[in-house]
């Protein structure tokens, strides 16, 4: 049942000393289950200060009525009972549910504006900073952008893309009080984070990253990615510089080692397939738990394996290991390929381009499980040129193996390590498969590029 707020303001020509206490306040009839919060109670005492800003010589008394269900008819004892004294006259003809995430939408226009304001004639009763301080007295302009971000916001204000004054930031530069979920201005955040990938989890400022448009009370929450949760998550987590998805999605519990998954009750996509939301319970606008930064369902966990064991057997060989690619019958376990590759492999055409499409950049994918950096003693993910490159090419020709490099001759994890199990790839691509290194011996690990010392 929706909860509505009704604010009744009565201007009293004279409020004597006898009316100061609760017992002497004007009696309101026929409220039934309505709760009364009187004007002297905090934090509603701010209403007195707000009205006195324009009416310093007047004395006011307020009642804030919070009621459920049908709007009550309220009569004030001792007043002339006219249409204006009824609560119905103060409400619009069609009363829409208030947005519980943005309390500003419950305010009357006259609280901040003169006359009947429009977008073109929104005259404020006082300067915006002073107006905001009526309800936020201890709050100054905060979270100010700096450096290049400050220049971008200033340019947007000057160009009329954001509200402000003389290129300077006002409260309304960042906050949109009408038709906004949390009172935050989406256009401000988009300009501020243009070209960057901010982290929207637990941030009310970035709701639009996942929920385009306004979140309306009682309506279906809009969701980006065509309501495909995997597509939505990978829209950011597939970009460079963002942590990669560590687990395959779009597969069912098809393994004898993951039968527990069928009894957990975690949300699955159509067909009982895993999605990002199966394991991760996104915190929405709440702050993430520092002990459970990846918001794993049922967390926090002392060690990550405890969560993995909710679906997988407590056998390290059976656990989520993308390198376990061959089953006991010698067949390729296709689902293991999806940890790193976008599609199931085309076994009939091993050199098909789709076989090489990765979930993201290789270094990021490997770092999801192998976080030991720099590796082995310094960062080796650098471009290779000059003598080192020449030595590597000569070593490959001599030993009939491949030490692949990335774009710009970048050294990758797969340059030194073959991530595939023995039997998945044939020829030089299969050299070193099932071992720690592509080269045949530990003493050879450095030799291809650095030579023998």
Task: Sum this structure up briefly.
20% of the residues lie in helices and 6% in strands. The protein is mainly alpha-helical and 453 residues long. The protein has a 3-stranded antiparallel beta sheet, covered by helices on one side. Strands 2-5 form a two-stranded antiparallel sheet.
Which helices and strands, and how do they pair?
Blueprint: E1 3-11, E2 28-29, E3 35-38, H1 46-52, E4 60-68, E5 75-76, H2 87-90, H3 128-133, H4 148-158, H5 171-174, H6 186-192, H7 229-237, H8 276-279, H9 304-308, H10 334-337, H11 362-367, H12 386-399, H13 413-416, H14 447-450
Antiparallel strand pairs: 1-4, 2-5, 3-4
Give your account of this protein's structure.
The protein has 14 helices and five strands. The chain is mainly α and 453 residues long. The protein starts with a strand and ends with a helix. The protein has helices at 46-52, 87-90, 128-133, 148-158, 171-174, 186-192, 229-237, 276-279, 304-308, 334-337, 362-367, 386-399, 413-416, 447-450; strands spanning 3-11, 28-29, 35-38, 60-68, 75-76. Strands 1-4-3 form a three-stranded antiparallel β-sheet, covered by helices on one side. It has a two-stranded antiparallel sheet with strand order 2-5. It folds into four domains: 3-95, no CATH class; 103-222, no CATH class; 242-371, no CATH class; 377-450, no CATH class. The longest helix has 14 residues, at 386-399.
Low-confidence stretches: 1-25, 77-95
* Count, helices: 14
Walk across the major sheet and give the strand order: 1-4-3
Number of strands: 5
How much helix is in the residues?
10-25%
Share of residues in strands: 5-15%
Tertiary shape: elongated
Q: How many domain modules? A: 4
Structure class: mainly alpha
Task: Measure the end-to-end span.
Answer: 78 Å
Based on CA atoms alone, the radius of gyration comes out at 32 Å
Strand count, sense and closure of the main sheet? 3 strands, antiparallel
Mean pLDDT value: 75
């Amino acid at each position: 049942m929706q909860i509505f707020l009704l604010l009744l303001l009565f201007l009293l020509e004279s409020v004597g000393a006898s009316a100061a206490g609760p017992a002497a306040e004007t009696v309101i009839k026929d409220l039934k289950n309505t709760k009364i919060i009187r004007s002297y109670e905090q934090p509603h005492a701010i209403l007195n200060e707000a009205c006195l800003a324009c009416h310093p010589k007047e004395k006011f008394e307020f009642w804030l009525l919070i009621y459920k269900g049908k709007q009550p008819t309220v009569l004030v004892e001792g007043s002339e009972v006219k249409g204006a004294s009824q609560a119905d006259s103060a409400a619009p003809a069609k009363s829409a549910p208030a947005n519980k995430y943005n309390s500003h939408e419950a305010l009357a226009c006259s609280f901040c504006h003169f006359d009947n304001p429009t977008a073109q004639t929104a005259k404020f009763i006082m300067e915006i900073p002073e107006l905001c301080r009526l309800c936020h007295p201890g709050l100054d302009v905060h979270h100010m952008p700096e450096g290049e971000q400050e220049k971008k916001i200033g340019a947007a204000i000057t160009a009329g893309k954001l509200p402000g004054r003389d290129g300077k930031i006002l409260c309304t530069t960042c906050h949109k009080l009408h038709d906004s979920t949390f009172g935050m201005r989406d256009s401000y955040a988009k300009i501020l984070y243009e070209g960057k990938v901010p982290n929207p989890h637990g941030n009310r400022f970035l709701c639009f990253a996942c929920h385009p448009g306004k979140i309306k009370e009682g309506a279906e929450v809009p969701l980006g990615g065509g309501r495909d949760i995997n597509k939505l998550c990978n829209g950011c987590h597939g970009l460079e510089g963002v942590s990669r998805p560590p687990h395959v999605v779009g597969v069912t519990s098809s393994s004898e080692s993951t039968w527990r998954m069928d009894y957990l009750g975690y949300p699955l996509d159509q067909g009982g397939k895993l999605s990002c939301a199966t394991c991760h319970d996104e915190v929405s606008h709440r702050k993430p738990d520092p002990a459970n930064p990846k918001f794993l369902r049922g967390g926090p966990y002392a060690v990550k394996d405890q969560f993995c064991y909710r679906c997988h057997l407590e056998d390290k060989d059976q656990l989520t290991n993308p390198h376990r690619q061959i089953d006991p019958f010698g067949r390729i376990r296709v689902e293991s390929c999806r940890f790193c590759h976008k599609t199931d492999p085309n076994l009939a055409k091993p050199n098909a381009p789709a076989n090489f499409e990765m979930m993201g950049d290789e270094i990021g994918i490997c770092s999801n499980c192998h976080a030991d950096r720099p590796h082995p003693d310094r960062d080796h993910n650098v471009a290779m040129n000059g003598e080192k490159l020449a030595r590597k090419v000569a070593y490959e020709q001599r030993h009939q193996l491949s030490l692949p490099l990335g774009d710009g001759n970048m050294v990758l994890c797969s340059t030194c390590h073959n991530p595939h199990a023995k039997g998945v790839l044939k020829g030089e691509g299969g050299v070193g498969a099932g071992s720690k290194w592509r080269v045949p011996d530990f003493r050879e690990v450095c030799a291809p590029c650095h030579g023998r010392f």
